């Protein structure tokens, strides 16, 4: 047990802020006396979800002597995220391979809420706490566990940094690298919304991070198939006013969709981007904005409405629509409907309802026929 061994290792006792102490106490209060705790990041975990889960694993072990297991649903395919997992010293179990038997373990949900439809809690587990930073996160009536919601904070990783700091748990160099990467990706290197806590976490973690690991994650090798998707995305990319969007016909790994939306966001004068993609019987969509006052999560939920689910932050959001039973034509019609609805909100100036989209927009990359000598 690391408990009771909290004297400052670096010579000065951390001045404990009462608010933080109460947070740690609140976490401790929901932890079980015996047995392993499940740590559940949101489905198809991104760097923030992964790094936060790893930080929680460390916190439980070092501060409370509680064993835990990180369990996730979905896949990890983005090259950078796979590289990140390679450097994580804790193992991640795919929920599909989890055997709970008759135990009903306590679960902590990170970087999402179990009542959003975007976090799958293993059947049989009981959620005892939720830590999240998404702006639309709402408390759930009747839920009596820990709810640490900080809408507006750049990353859940920053919140987890604060827990570790408050607990006096030193952050190992590899984990510091993962947390840094999480904060950097969530805030697009601080070009998106962040709070003083994000900046503090980043500055405090930087001197103790393994920078080689951070470099290897950032510059992870990419498979050739990635470039084929990139080409498809560029071929399909359209511009209309301040909006750029694209579409992928067959997405195997969902992470490429937000990646394309991010990439389009770097086009000059473009402030809104989105990318759609077919993936089996689902349509995936990611929306991005560089405007500080943007409310991507709300907007996407409004546009998708009853047709699917969506969630996200001010500057980024993701959604899914069910395509089961739809013919290819119906799918395409639905996609055009979504594109039109989004443009209606984002660039409503001259979009006539009965005009085809292709008269309104133009391709990002104009095809130039090579001039023969
Ligand atoms: Mn996050």
Strand order of the largest sheet: 11-12-10-9-8-7-13
Q: Fill in the CATH topology of the largest domain.
A: inorganic pyrophosphatase (n-terminal core)
CATH homology group of the largest domain: inorganic pyrophosphatase (n-terminal core)
Q: What spatial form do the alpha-carbon principal axes imply?
A: globular
What integer value in Å does the Rg equal? 22 Å
How many extended strands? 13
Order of helices and strands: HEHEHEEEEHHHHHEEHEEHEEHE
Q: How far apart are the first and last residues' alpha carbons, in Å? A: 78 Å
Which ions, cofactors or small ligands are bound in this entry? manganese (II) ion
Q: What's the architecture of the largest domain in CATH terms?
A: Alpha-Beta Complex
What is the domain total for the residues? 2
């Amino acid at each position: 047990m690391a408990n009771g061994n909290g004297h400052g290792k670096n010579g000065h006792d951390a001045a404990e802020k009462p608010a933080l102490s109460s947070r740690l106490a609140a976490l401790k209060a929901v932890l079980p006396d015996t047995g392993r705790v499940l740590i559940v990041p949101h489905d198809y975990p991104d760097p923030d979800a992964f790094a936060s889960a790893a930080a929680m694993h460390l916190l439980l072990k070092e501060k409370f002597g509680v064993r835990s297991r990180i369990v996730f649903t979905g896949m990890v395919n983005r090259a950078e995220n796979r590289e990140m997992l390679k450097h994580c010293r804790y193992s991640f179990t795919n929920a599909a391979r989890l055997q709970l038997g008759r135990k009903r373990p306590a679960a902590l949900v990170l970087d999402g809420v179990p009542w959003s439809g975007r976090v799958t809690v293993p059947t049989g587990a009981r959620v005892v706490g939720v830590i999240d930073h998404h702006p639309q996160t709402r408390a759930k009536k009747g839920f009596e566990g820990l709810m640490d919601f900080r809408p507006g904070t750049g990353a859940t990783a920053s919140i987890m940094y604060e827990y570790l700091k408050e607990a006096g748990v030193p952050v190992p160099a590899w984990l510091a690298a993962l947390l840094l990467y999480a904060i950097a990706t969530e805030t697009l290197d601080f070009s998106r919304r962040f709070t003083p806590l994000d900046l503090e976490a980043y500055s405090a973690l930087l001197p103790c991070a393994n920078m080689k690991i951070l470099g290897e994650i950032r510059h992870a090798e990419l498979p050739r198939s990635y470039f084929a998707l990139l080409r498809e995305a560029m071929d399909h990319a359209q511009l209309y006013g301040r909006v750029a969007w694209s579409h992928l016909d067959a997405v195997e790994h969902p992470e490429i969709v937000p990646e394309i939306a991010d990439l389009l966001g770097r086009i000059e004068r473009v402030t809104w981007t989105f990318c759609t993609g077919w993936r089996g019987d689902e349509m995936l969509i990611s929306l991005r904005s560089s405007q500080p006052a943007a409310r991507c999560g709300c907007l996407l939920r409004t546009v998708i409405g009853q047709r699917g689910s969506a969630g996200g932050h001010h500057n980024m959001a993701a959604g899914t629509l069910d395509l089961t039973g739809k013919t290819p034509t119906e799918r395409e019609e639905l996609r055009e409907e979504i594109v039109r609805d989004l443009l209606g909100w984002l660039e409503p100036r001259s979009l006539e309802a009965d005009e085809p989209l292709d008269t309104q927009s133009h391709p990002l990359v104009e095809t130039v026929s090579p001039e023969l000598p």
